[in-house]
Phospholipase A-2-activating protein (Rubroshorea leprosula), 705 residues
Amino acid sequence: MEIEFKEYQLRCQLRGHEDDVRGICVCGGESIATSSRDRTVRFWTLDPSDKRKFLSSKILLGHSSFVGPLAWISPNEEFPEGGIVSGGMDTMVLVWDLRTGEKVQTLKGHQIQVTGLLLDNKDIVSSSVDCTLRRWRNGQTVESWEAHKAAIQAVVKLPSGELVSGSSDTTLKLWKGSTCIHTFVGHTDTVRGLAVMPELGILSASHDGSIRLWAISGELLMEMVGHTSIVYSVDSHVSGLVVSGSEDRFAKIWKDGVCVQSIEHPGCIWDIKFLENGDIVTACSDGVVRIWTTNLTSIADPVELEAYGSVLSQYKLSRKRVGGLKLEELPGLEALRIPVFDVDIGDGEPIRKLPYNRSDNPYDAADKWLLRENLPLAYRQQIVEFILQNTGQKDFSLDPSFRDPYTGSSAYTPGEPSYNSANSAKPLFKHIPKKGMLIFDAAQFDKMLKKIIELNSALLSDPDKKNLSLTELEISRLGVIIKILNDTSHYHSSSFADVDIALLLKLLKSWPLAMIFPVIDILRMIILHPDGASKLLKHVENENDVLVEMVKRVTTDPALPPNLLTSIRAITNLFKNSPYQNWLQKHRSDIIDAFSNCVSSPNKNLQLSYSTLLLNYAVLLIEKKDEEGQSHVLSAALQFAEEENAEVDSKYRALVAIGSLMLEGLVKQLALDFEVDSIAKAAKVSKEAKIAEVGADIQLLTKQS
């Protein structure tokens, strides 16, 4: 007997996250876990005083960047109250014990953002933008394989035990172990979300705006079309209902392939899940988790319902008012008897005229008007939509020969694949691409030597460490080294004795960890000296690579800020010497990972040094056409751009690295998969001019096909 559909209404709103809610995990019957761009995971349980509502009972802190996919570990001997697995943009998979709220495992192995998680018996399976699937057992990788040639966006487990992955290559793949049994082809853009449809097959949500239901054999059973933008998530319920969440701000409920209800939100819906009782949970970009119900006894009280309606109204009004441009006050259809619109910019500005003839290309008309009136090109799409709406051109089709006069590319057309690149003319950008390498060449040589002598005196006075101290002859040799480095006008002709380099390296290895930072600082300047760099290279190319050992030593806990600062700057200076570039490329993964915690350091100098390292790597790996390396640097730079407390110059350099990699590198689609547009938008409203300008550069790149 067919079940009558009942309309969903708001049950409650879960507030606590400070930024976009990115993921939802249903934990048994009466608990929920959510993840956020604010770097936290929150665990919610039923409010004992009001069963309609949920309370945040635990906040899990451990990720260094935004958190995405989640998985639930049912209570067992190891986790009596259950556990949570979380994956983040920081490349980590973390395992949490809900009894204590503590992190019990850190799984390191993915090179880029973790996008999907599931439990397979006691194993954890994860997917990543690095194109791999990984199987973890007891905290260790037991299996890893490249599952797609583009970013993997989701992975689910079928009741029969097989895995299904979805990718930016537009396909789904069915896996038995690490063997691909079938590839599902049909979507025209990134496959972003997956869910199992009980007894029928697999559901997929795509950037092409559709949801598809596939039989395990690969046959397309059903296509659900109704969203007007990217569909990020899909889920199903035993009742046969399907729910989807989209960038178009709507949660849509589907019954037998037909949309039976659309629930509007004040922002993008990143994730959506059914509770066991059929209620729906949505994760929104406004930072609020909402639960929707058909149970009349569970619906929110009238005050909360009215408040939510008000939030929606205010949000829609804000979208109609961008800056001072009052689009809602532009003339209606009756004004189209004349070919000019009056536009009120506000702020005491005079009325401006927007000329438009029915025969004009609306994109061309909007662009010319914005340029003439010196208004931001960001208003372009809203002006075009206004023109189309008020001239009745709902079925407007863009002339394929049209080219944006500012970007050289065709205008954006909804539904077109985001992974295709057009051979368009390069626009002029203000800050990208970055050319050449940045170095740290400022030095206070006298202070370096003075500090070493001071530390040496401390060793001499310590009976247990006296044997590590320098002789007078060795201190004299250090003085000679400093003198050569200080005489920059003779860099082309001066040289070092082999014993000078050997002395520095001996101190680097033997002196206590807390004392080596001035030695590394001298090494930083040796690297910029032609003969010094050449002599050091011999110690880098042998089996006992002194630079690799230095990085390992200074980044081992406890990592001391003076050591981190001088060593990052020393490694950064290597980019200036072409003989070291192969070494830098070879050790890229270890170097970036070793210093990655500098992103969130309160030390502004450390932040700047690390962001400079990333920018130099971006320039080098673009030149080397190293796609894997570019992906790694992009991920690290995006993490920097997400850092709220990043120092201005640091964030600027990270953004320049992102823009350069998108423009001249091989990872533009990857950046789009990372929602780089949201980072660009945030940068554009910065009070710092150069941050806002490079944000505009990146946003312009995202709009190019």
